Known about the structure:
Two copies of one chain form a homodimer. Chain A is of the alpha+beta class and about 500 residues long. Chain A has 18 helices and 20 strands. Chain A has a seven-stranded antiparallel β-sheet, sandwiched between helices. Chain A has a five-stranded antiparallel β-sheet with strand order 5-6-10-8-9. Chains A, B: Keywords: FAD, Flavoprotein, Oxidoreductase.
Amino acid sequence: MQMPEPDRGVIGRKREIIADLQEILPQESVIYDEDELRAYENDGLTAYRQIPLIVVLPETTDQVSQVLQYCHENSIKVVPRGAGTSLSGGALPLEDGIVLGLGKFNQILETDFENRCVVAQPGVTNLGITNAVEHAGFYYAPDPSSQIACSIGGNVAENSGGVHCLKYGLTTNNLLGLKVVLIDGSILEIGGKHLDSEGYDLLGLMTGSEGLLGVVTEVTVRILQKPASARAVLLGFETSEAAGDCVASVIAEGIIPGGMEMMDRPAIHAAEDFVKAGYPLDVDALLIVELDGPPVEVDHLLERVSEIAKTHGAVYNRISESDEERARFWAGRKAAFPAVGRLSPDYYCMDGTIPRNKLPHVLTRMREMSEHYGLGVVNVFHAGDGNLHPLIMYDANKPGDLEKAEEFGGDILTLCVEVGGVLTGEHGVGVEKRDLMGSMFSEIDLNQQQRVKCAFDPDSLLNPGKVFPQLHRCAELGRMHIHRGQLPFPDIPRF
Amino acid sequence: MQMPEPDRGVIGRKREIIADLQEILPQESVIYDEDELRAYENDGLTAYRQIPLIVVLPETTDQVSQVLQYCHENSIKVVPRGAGTSLSGGALPLEDGIVLGLGKFNQILETDFENRCVVAQPGVTNLGITNAVEHAGFYYAPDPSSQIACSIGGNVAENSGGVHCLKYGLTTNNLLGLKVVLIDGSILEIGGKHLDSEGYDLLGLMTGSEGLLGVVTEVTVRILQKPASARAVLLGFETSEAAGDCVASVIAEGIIPGGMEMMDRPAIHAAEDFVKAGYPLDVDALLIVELDGPPVEVDHLLERVSEIAKTHGAVYNRISESDEERARFWAGRKAAFPAVGRLSPDYYCMDGTIPRNKLPHVLTRMREMSEHYGLGVVNVFHAGDGNLHPLIMYDANKPGDLEKAEEFGGDILTLCVEVGGVLTGEHGVGVEKRDLMGSMFSEIDLNQQQRVKCAFDPDSLLNPGKVFPQLHRCAELGRMHIHRGQLPFPDIPRF
């Protein structure tokens, strides 16, 4: 993973930049002491670390605007950061760049039930949105595993998903409006409480753009009423292929479960050892299928799902009889990652997505690859969405093991693309999958993506080195001519 | 409504251009005879007419690519056209431009139940998608009133909605993938059958871009299982304000009806006279609320909706007792536009969206405006979404009446923006609302929108004069320097 050459000039001007930023922000909001900076050296992709030049912690949109305008005028790179839980290195700092942390944007600004939405600052946690409205029976649907920690602004940047996205959609399907600051300091208001919007859909475009197009300082999300009831069923199968076929059949019947998760044998054992979820230990694959809605609908659908499972040879079927039991079923799934941590000194969590009916084929191929590399792989994933999270087990202290794990991971993602899938479901590309983008996109696609980047950030100061394999200079792509020292859009002509 | 000055040079080269296009396409696919061209002179916004220079009817992506590449190289403007049902003039031709009609792209390419999607060519009608899958109990959710005629490609271009979008989302929420040809002839594959995608969300960006960014030649949409049952209730109120309050309360309770439509007194009477839907004639406002799902859930929710309506003073409540009766309730709603056509020689259908809780205020203000202009207004709209469709009644043969109607319409849309809404819900901006975009967007917003346009179509050859009030030259905006005669991105540098 190669990052762009750091700008020695900027590093040499560190003192001066600190002083300038202290003109914009309160003293305590500009962090430059190496010990304090270390807290920001990585995100959830801990294999990569880099101490940033400076960290700033603004608390108003106006401050963000001033910081970005300053960085723009002085050609300083900026890495936006939410809660730092990215699993793809989306918030990995740069030696010659500022980290713009949004931790102080931690207020719920408005709960509006008549328009069924919440307006929040980007540093509010995902669960914080639900906490603000659950007294009235509402919740915010997308639920990443990290939901107690991850920020709603980070969710927008990564278009985060979760167990319930099968039925309720990803972040982009639950987002209504954004306030965004562009690299030149200008402030865009995108969308709002209303349905749809005229003009190009910048709301969609910003979502999942991984901090490369702008910095979000306000988020309006849709909330939903909690379902009247929910029950889950554990379905055990003798092969992962049979479980995969069952998933495809449930969907083909038109049933959309609240969640439909799959675990393979190693995952089942690891989770059961760890939290005693009540999983069967003599099956090769386990599905957890949750149905939600009015009790009578839930009962009816559970019956249909059980029948479908039977035709696919399910050897185990247990329906939760209480909310406690349902919570226990999920506890195993949610503890699967740490549980795998007990099996192996290190693991590498992948995130690819495939068309649902390709599950059996991909699972078989992954098993062959595991033998080829001599590294174990544990599968825990959002089966209903076709969103895989293979955990590759390795030992970082064993020379060459990490490299082997990364190669194995690359092969898995390449396979996902081969069968008509994509490199990521919900973790983003970041630095992790950047160098694989060429396997997914044609040159035409990548150039068009880059033209969009140029329309927002022509100098590539926002989160450079992430998502795209190598940045074209906008000037080359668009035959744009930038005069030395002249800003790319200093005085915008009036309409 | 001012359009850009036509390019006399292009008009003068008409013969030569016809010959060139006949090299790319079969003879019969290049239309240039004035009588035949007249069939394309307007779309659903019939107040505006313009005979195009030439119409081409390609039938493969490759042909579209060659046509666009030719137009790009020869600076010829292109207006893409689906079924021509746009109500905002999105497919209004240009005197100096080619209309690229997609009527020959009329095949369903694939129905895939395991991945719950349909792959279709853009000229397939909206209802054609449902027709292709209903034998298996599935349907395509967004349902514009024009669904028997409008094309799925046009739905993508306008991000079309419909009665059921309250619960099931607009086109953008039901779209999975696109094949798009850019103005330089390059072909992009965006999204697919899988969940989400890496890179910037070009799928979202293309949706609703009104033919200004590219030409869609293949569409992959999500299909849904038909709900187990559906019932509708008619709720009558003594004032539109009370009905508006009731809508806000239903939503605030967390209930999401399949559809929630509102009609005011003139609309009720016109529809009842026309189709005998069984509407009460002594109320000022009527809500049609449809609940769908398992029968027991539907019954329960109908009861809750009725209770809420009662607290808002509903004076009429009738629940459909059969599918025939439910169909009759809807027949009135669906016939409301032609029914108004019997009341007034002409009417002008508006399309603004407001936050749901602003309904009562906006309805009152509209009544005041109606008195001020001396023109009647009939309201039939998607109340649950806050998507208004006021029909302004006028007489085109009465001098000054059309201008008054347009001014009245402009005032309504400006009011929508004032209360935090937007200029369009589902009809698009087109030429109709183009000059109002400045009331919605700041200069910063508009410039950023234009930068996005420049990233796709720097010479502004695709559907110029639509959506945006006046186009900046990309060169000015981005300090882009285009040499005379040199193409904006002729040789794309390799990664």
